[in-house]
Structure formats: C-alpha cells, structure tokens
C-alpha cells in the first residue's frame, strides 16, 4: 500500500497521507516549541462516516520532543519514554572506527511489533526504511521522496510511504514509528551542527 503525502512544506511529519484514490488515511500535525516549551506531534487516523462530507479523525499517537529530557511517545493510549519503546543500533560506516562519527551519521531504531518480532528502522541520508530485524533485508516499509519529471522520460511522483503486505497487519504502528524516526532523521539532515547527544535523542 502506498500512502501519498500532501504537505505545505513537503514535510513527512506535517501533512495528510492519502491513498491512490485520494482518500485520507492519516493526518499528522506538528507543533513547534519555543523557548523551554517542547515541540509535539499528533497523528490522527481517518474514520469513515457516510453521513459526513469531511473526514473525521481519531487520534492514534502523540509525541513530545524534549530538549533536556527523554522524548515521550503515546501510542494507542499507552505512554512510553523513547528509550523504553526503541532500542538503538549504530551502524559503523565503512573505513571508520569512531563511534561518535557513526552516531552523527544516524542510528537505527529497533522496536517490537504486535507480532512479537523485532523491526528496525534505518535512518538513511535521504529517507527511512523499515526491515524485519532478522539479519536479512526483508523490507516492511520505505519512504520515497518526491521525484521530479524529466522531459517526458520520467513521470513526476509525489512523496509517499510504501507499506508492504508484511506490514499491513500492524499498519498504525508502522506509520507512527515512521513519523517519529523521520522527524529525527529530517532534523539531522537539516542541521548537522545539532546536539545529537541531548537526552531526548535515543
């Protein structure tokens, strides 16, 4: 299943995700913090109502991002500190031995799915991908940035999140964890000078 993003700023963590038929599935609202106030994210899922022209939404997750404390994740009514929900695995770049360098390049995030298995989000330079954490390359989900058309050779495509059939049984969890890790990955991409050792970053 592909979920296509419509966003004013083309931000994966602030916009609405639609099906190919233009039916809304998820709405993500980002609220920036100021001063000591934390930033936050709210993820809503559209619910069908034949008597409503506009979609109705139910909240499935809320995240709080703290500068000097652990991030908080509320998913389906249960609240976790980020380090309780995710464990971190730092990939070692080829030809390097400095773990601090590896951390700044990005760390994988591992969580346990509703089926009891472990899954791993890899934070790439341009996008995030989710795999079954079994040592193989069993793709569960992947974000695809916008592709611009090329003189009739390549069609223009909007940004979208691809969820493979293996991820559909826990679609909400896949989507919510994607939004969290993409927020972290996007911040790293935009600001290499940011303090990635802050307590909130796991």
Question: What this model shows, in words?
Answer:
It holds the Pfam family DUF6593. Residues 11-186 form the DUF6593 domain. This protein is of the alpha+beta class. It has one domain. Helices cover 15% and strands 36% of the residues. It is built from 3 helices and 13 strands; from the N terminus they run βββββββαβαβββββα. The chain has helices at residues 82-85, 99-105, 171-190, and strands at residues 2-6, 15-18, 24-31, 39-47, 56-65, 72-75, 78-81, 87-89, 108-112, 118-123, 128-132, 139-144, 160-163. A 13-stranded antiparallel β-sheet has the order 7-6-5-4-3-2-1-13-12-11-10-9-8.
Helix content: 10-25%
Main sheet properties: 13 strands, antiparallel
Q: Based on the structure, what is the oligomeric state of the protein chains?
A: single chain
- As laid out across the biggest beta sheet, the strand order is 7-6-5-4-3-2-1-13-12-11-10-9-8
Strand tally: 13
Radius of gyration: 17 Å
- Ends apart, CA distance between termini: 29 Å
Q: Helices and strands: which structural class? A: alpha+beta
**Low-pLDDT residue spans:** 93-106, 193-199
Average pLDDT, all residues: 82
Shape: globular
The helix tally amounts to 3
- In percent, how much strand structure appears in the residues? 35-45%
SSE succession? EEEEEEEHEHEEEEEH
The number of domains: 1
């Amino acid at each position: 299943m592909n979920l296509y993003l419509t966003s004013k700023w083309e931000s994966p963590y602030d916009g609405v995700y639609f099906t190919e038929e233009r039916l809304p599935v998820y709405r993500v609202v980002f609220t920036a913090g100021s001063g000591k106030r934390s930033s936050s994210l709210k993820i809503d899922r559209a619910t069908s109502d034949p008597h409503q022209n506009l979609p109705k939404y139910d909240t499935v997750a809320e995240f709080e991002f703290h500068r000097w404390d652990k991030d908080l994740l509320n998913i389906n009514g249960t609240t976790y500190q980020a380090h309780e929900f995710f464990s971190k695995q730092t990939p070692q770049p080829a030809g390097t031995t400095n773990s601090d360098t590896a951390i700044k390049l990005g760390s994988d995030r591992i969580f346990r799915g509703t089926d009891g298995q472990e899954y791993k989000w890899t934070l790439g330079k341009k996008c995030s991908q989710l795999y079954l954490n079994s040592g193989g390359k069993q793709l569960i989900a992947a974000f695809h940035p916008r592709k611009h058309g090329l003189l009739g050779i390549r069609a223009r495509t909007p940004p979208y999140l691809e969820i493979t059939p293996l991820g559909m049984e826990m679609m909400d969890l896949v989507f919510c964890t994607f939004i969290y890790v993409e927020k972290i990955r996007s911040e790293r991409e935009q600001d290499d000078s940011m303090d990635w050792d802050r307590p909130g970053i796991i």
